[in-house]
Amino acid sequence: MDEDREQPIWRIATGKSDKMVCGSFRGLLEDLWFLTKNVRSVIKVSRRKMVPRAFRERLMLAVVSVYGCPLCSWLHTGGALRSGIAEAEIAGLLAGSVDNCPEDEAVAVLYAQHWADSDAKPEPEAVKRLEQTYGTEKARVVNTILHMNRIGEYSFSVGGLFLYRISFGRWGK
Length: 173
Prior knowledge:
Blueprint lengths: L1 H4 L3 H5 L11 H13 L1 H8 L6 H15 L2 H13 L4 H8 L11 H12 L6 H11 L1 H31 L7
């Protein structure tokens, strides 16, 4: 962790990872089905209602910290910087820490990490805690953000694998 702090934020964000992003094609279909059932939440996320941009980026960085996709990490690090999140907080989120995260968002960020780590099948207690903390509607919006993010993770994984194959292992993966 100390050596991470000495590197520029973009170097931490684009570090190579051997982790496999997301589970399966079935997971992609589950995400698409969830988003289809929750179109109102998708619209709220798209119009930036209920969840500020910085909060959304924190959730996405929490998921990226679990999946380890370098392209997604780079993309969301840039988004987090543009939304005003400090470099130290971004580095912490990418390392899986919520120490520098605003206190009122910590429950959702920890939930996002658990959600990603459990392949979008969080424990019922975690879902209950999220709903108790933010209310049912905002919890649904948080889950919508996570499902939308995972679809993006799938896309970048496939794109990275494609680059890896056509470059004979020099790019992607």
